[in-house]
């Protein structure tokens, strides 16, 4: 279903209402970040940045993303198999973030028991941001 964004983008009041609803939804769904003013507080948070509408991506930038994807996947795979590097890199996060700590505990337990699989599937996500001059 095609959507005509042009008329919505021209209606400032409707756009502001949509933005307000989107922020409320982000807060309700837990799309949160700690603030720079209170970086250790879980009570003082803000919503994570997001966009209301999809963005057109110039084909040259899309080609750049394609060009680095294989190398990025190989890097992620290599990092995932380097337990010492992971532990050193994540050590401060593990101390502060319970979720990451639990994931790393699972990782250590798997290494302790021995990896049984000979084949691995990596589903890697990489997001790219680009900035246009105003």
UniProtKB/TrEMBL annotation:
One Gene Ontology molecular-function label:
ATP binding
Q: Which Pfam families does the entry mention? A: GSH_synth_ATP
What is the name of the protein in this document?
Glutathione synthetase
Query: What is this protein's gene name?
Result: GSS
């Amino acid at each position: 279903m095609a959507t005509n964004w042009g008329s919505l983008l021209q209606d400032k009041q409707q756009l502001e209402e949509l933005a307000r609803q989107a922020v409320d939804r982000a807060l309700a769904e837990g799309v949160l970040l700690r603030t720079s003013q209170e970086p250790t507080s879980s009570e003082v948070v803000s919503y994570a940045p997001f966009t209301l509408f999809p963005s057109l991506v110039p084909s040259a930038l899309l080609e750049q993303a394609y060009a680095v994807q294989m190398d990025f996947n190989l890097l992620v795979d290599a990092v995932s198999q380097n337990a010492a590097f992971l532990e050193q890199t994540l050590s401060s996060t593990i101390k502060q973030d319970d979720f990451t700590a639990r994931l790393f505990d699972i990782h250590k337990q798997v290494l302790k028991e021995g990896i049984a699989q000979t084949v691995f599937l990596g589903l890697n996500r990489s997001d790219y941001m680009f900035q246009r001059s105003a």
